Amino acid sequence: MKNHQALYLLPILALAFLPITIGESGSLRPVLSGPDRAYLNTRVVFRCSVPNLSSMASYMLIRDRRFVVGRNVGRQRNNTAMFPLKVNAASDGSYHCKASTEESRGLSNRIKLTIVTPPSNIRVTSDPYPPVAFEGSQIVLSCDAQRGSHLNYTWYFNRTTIMSSTSGFSIVGNKLVMEKVTLEREGNYNCIAWSMVQQITRYSTCTEVKVTVKVKISKPEISLFIFKEGDTYLGNVTCSSSKGTPPVNFSLLLDDTEVITATAAKSLAAWFKIPVAIGLNMGEARCRGRNEAQDLKSEALTLEVVPVGGDVRLEVDYLYTAEAKLDAVKLSCHISRGTFPHFSWLVNNTILPTESQKDFKPQTFLSHQKQGLILSEFSAEYAGYYRCRARDSYEDSGPWAESAAVLVQITEENLNSMAQASSCTSTMSQKLFSDVITIVFCCFFLLMLAVASVCVYKMFDQPQAFTNVSATNTISFHLSGPQSQSVGLQADTLSCDVHNQTVEFTL
Q: According to the model, what pLDDT value does residue 442 have?
C-alpha cells in the first residue's frame, strides 16, 4: 500500500524540482568563438568563456549537439577554456559549448565550421574533344580538380586574365563557355583553381590547352584545262575553295554521280584527270567539298570543248582623259567560237614577244572569247599595223585564225593633233550652230523681200486693177510710216490710199 502511494507522489516531486533545473540551466550565458572555415589537416582553436563569472566553471565542446569534442576548465583570470582541434574530414559540423558551475549551467552560441580541401591535380577538359571547332560553333572548357572543395576559378587566354565582362566569354562555375567562336579566340587556355581561408590562399594550376578554330570552306569552284598526251585529249578538272581550313574532301560529280574523290590535306584544291572528246558534249560536271560540318557543291560546268574557228575581229578604242588627251589605246581581239583559245599578237607582221607585253598590260577574257591589249605608253615602236590570231591552246601545232590588220598610229604630233582635233571639233560645232541660225534668218528675209517686190511690181503694172475683188483672193501690204514697215493680211476689201502709203494689189 505504501509503495502505491510513493508512485503517486513521483509526478508531484518532478514538477517541484523542474523550476529549479530550468533556472540553473539558463543562468549561464557562455560565449563560443572560433573559425567558421578551416583547411583540411590544419589546427584550429575554439574558445569558450562566461563573461563576469566569479567562480570557476567547467566547459564541454560539443559538435552537432551530441559529440563531445573536448572538456576543459576555465582559467581563473578570465574564465576561458581553449579547445585546440586538428581538423579532419569529420570535423565539419556545428559547434557549441556547455558551461557548468556548482550552482548553474548554460549553452553557448553555435558556430558552423566548414572544412575546405585545397585544390590539387587540376586539368582542363573540353567539349568537343579535342578542342577543335568551326567558326560560329560552341566550345566549353572545364577546370576539373581531382581533389578540392569550395573552389574558385580564374581563366587565362594567352596568359591574359579572362574577366566575367570579357566579350565572347561566359564563366559558369568551373566552366568557360564560348557560344560562337571566332578566329580571334584561337589560342592557349589554362585555369587556376583556388580557395581562401582566413586570408590564406591555396591554389593549383594546370598546363595550357590549345584551342583551334577552323574556317568554314567557301562554295567550291570548278575549272577545266585541256591538254594532249600523244593522240589522246585529257581534261584536268580543278576543284577548289577560296577560303577554309584543310583538310577538305573534294569529289568530282558527272551528271550528279560521284566518280572520284580526293582529300586536300594541306591545301584547298584537288585535281582530277578525265578523258575528253573534242566537239562532243559529255554532260555536266560539279565539284563537291566536304568537311566535318559542311557539304557544298559548285556550279555546273558543261564538258564541251569547241575548237577555235570562225571569224577573228580586231577592234581599236582610243581612251581619252577628262582634258581630252589621249591616255591609252585598247585593242580587243574577238573570235566567233572556241572554248580554249590561245591568242597571239603581231605588229607589222612581227610576233609580239611575251616579255614585251609588260608595257601593254594584256588583259585576257577567255570566257568571253576575247583578249585585249592596252597601250599605256606611247612611242614610235608601238605604232604600226596590228593583227591578232588564235588557235586551240591544247594544239601546239594547230592552225591559226587571223584577223585583218588595223593601223595604230601613235606619235607626239599625233597625240597633240588628237587633243587639238577634239577641241577644234567642239569649237566647230558651236560655230556651225551659229551659222545655221544666220542662214535661216537670211532665207526668211529674202523670202519677205521677194514677196514685197512682187507687190510693188503689180502696183505699177496694173493700176486699173484696183477694184473690189473677192476677199478670198486678196492680199494687202501696209506701210505704216517712212521709218518702219509692217506686212499684214486682209480678208475683206482692197483700197489704195497714196496719202496713207497703202498699197493694194490683186493676185
A: 82
